[in-house]
Amino acid sequence: MANVASDSKTDSLIAETRERLDAMPGWISQQTQSSTYPRAFLAAAEARGADRAQMLADAGLDAQRVEDPEGRLSLREVWMLAAVTRVRSGDPTLGFACGDSMPLTAHGNLGYALLCAGTPREAVGLLQRFWHLRGRGVQLLVNESDNDMFMELVPECALPPRLVDLMFSSIATSMFRGMEFLIRDLPGTAEIWLQGPAPDGVETWQARLPTLRFSMPRAGIHLVGDLSVMDQPLATANPEGLRAAVAQCERESALSDPGGDVLRRVRAMLLAGPNGYPSPVMLAERVHMTPRTFRRRLQEQGFSYQQLLEEARRRDSCQLLRDPEREIRRISDQLGYLNPANFTRAFKSWTGMTPREWRQQSSH
Description:
The protein contains 18 helices and 7 strands.
């Protein structure tokens, strides 16, 4: 029998998700998503005792559409079903189980392209290029230095944090399993970062996955070590198959809706320069909009400039703190905080630690 949580906080996830989705733009209702991922969530929840028919009814979905291998669902339906499976399964680690069940071939033409890539680096480039085909609603940002790569997951819409944790744990686990399959020897350290607190029962997954870090400033996969492995030939490389897979991905991409493009572009442009981060007026000019239209387009997706700025500061603070020679006061200035104490307060609200404590922990 399912270990269904009965506390009102957990049960409220369905109502909270529905309320958030009702306030989002129309593009989330376009049927652009593969039915593969909803089936994986249903299967994982069903294995934990949840009733499949009841979950579909709760999400307002027809079984035939979900079971069709070529079926397409909307993001709204995918997110709603994810919330339902989390609640009805009663398992806060459901995302890990779901991601663990999806091989590279579960990702359609994109998965086949990754299998056929010549090197891991080429595979990462393909993943970035065609991420929107399978990861709509979530952005993938890849940052790399000499011996450090972070593949960051960022939500495109303002979803409930518990739902984001569920989706990100699934995506990160699936990505890691794909990396394990493609790369024989991963760099020295591989970690999965999540922003929410450690869920009950996570010990099982701690033993089966790389180091899991919770309450972190950003989410994704962090690789540290000799990244020359990213340029080594892959055993599954297939140039002819790659050309065919990329051609199919390009056809899919040509048919995809560009509704979330502004948010993706703004996130990519929110980088700290010598004079800090670009202002809303500067960003509006770069995307060829008036400041008023710019604000409205962000609001349509549930975000404001200030939210995105804090997101960028959270992301960049971790990268800057990894440099032990960089003074915390200098980092505070670079992130645009007038007072280092304000930076310390903000960082502690993100991670539960001061910048100094986080730096000490991450160095171990």
